[in-house]
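Data card: per-record layout.
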Amino acid sequence: MVSENTIIQVLAEQKEEAEGYLSKNWVDRREECLFEFDSSMAQIVIGVRRSGKSTLCHKVLRDRGVRYAYVNLDDDRLAELQTADLNTVLSCVYQLYGSDVPYLFLDEIQNVDGWYLFVNRLLRTNMHIFITGSNAKLLSGELATHLTGRYNEIRLFPFSFAEYCQYHSVDTKGVTTKADAERKRAFLDYIRDGGFPEMQNLRNKRGYVESLMEAIVLKDIQTRFRIRNIDALRKIAHHLISNSCQEVNYDELSKLLGLSDKTVQRYVSYLQQTFLLCQLMRHSLKSKERMRGAKSYCIDPGLLNNRENSMAAENIGWRLENAVFVELLRRCANDYLDIYYYRPSAKGKEVDFVVCDKNRAQMLVQVSYDIDAPKTFKRETSALAAAASALDCENLLLIAFAESRDVEIEGRTIHIRSAIDWMLAP
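The structure for this 426-residue chain is written out next.
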């Protein structure tokens, strides 16, 4: 139990802090248009820690000009808050903001067990609720069960390259040699250091990434799932981040760490549920084949080398592939499209990404940093052409670093786009 005096003191300090925010200085995010202000459903923003969920909610509420109350539950003074305390929280909100406040923003709601009972009650009173959370299972898994469709889920990722450019005032439309060079430099910085908003101007990026990963491991996983072998969980996280874009070898991890296959699979699942890692399954109409040979990507390229004992390869091609996958997730998340990779057989030609609407392939995407070498160009384009025939898909995209043009291969048009042009496309 937390005393009312403590709660009202914390909320008063949070209110003062929020009132000092200047939303006009914040980056415009693609997800802003997904909020439904007049809806009776809770607006729920989920995503990895420190991706800007709180800032996004403050921005859209301020830009809309609505009056709202703010409660940040990721505060150490509220760590012992129980379900029974939430009514006291509501009383304190009314005292600070007035009993007629129409919008309530609950930040990091997953820190309180039984939060959904409180939210359901508020929704029944026609209050508009905005919520953020950093754990996919805690939110997505319980939303369908406990809010019974009374929510609008919005997934937020770290900055896209377009948002990164806005933050750093990079000219994205200039046609001069200087503007083009600045975009290329910015893109190389982006796929090296990533898009976590708070990390942009930090010199000690390693310290930031390490603290972020510890917060995810200790707050989002250990506390929730009561993990005993934290060291093994950390090792799995670092191993999979260092080997992004690769298939997850559970047998190898099991032998390396002395854990059962089921335990390793469970730990990997926890890392995915907190959005630190993203899973990419193989394209197949058979569910067993989809699950076999799944690949792992990290949520942001800045995680690849800004870590203790990091030996991640300086492979720009893998960094580009990881960045493209996250951008595809960002663009497809709210259109209910699925993404797979395609490999017809052990020796078959692989295509990096297949975007599907249910069981229909909508787009095939191949990623290659440099396609100047004839052998590389032939390998990447022939893989797309072969997959196009097998999957009956004519929307073929090859993302490279520095060129945009269309080519005809085996009677099919392949759109070659520079990574920069594609990332900056609306």
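Known properties of this structure: The chain has a mean pLDDT of 92. The two ends are 48 Å apart (CA to CA).

See the next section for split statistics.
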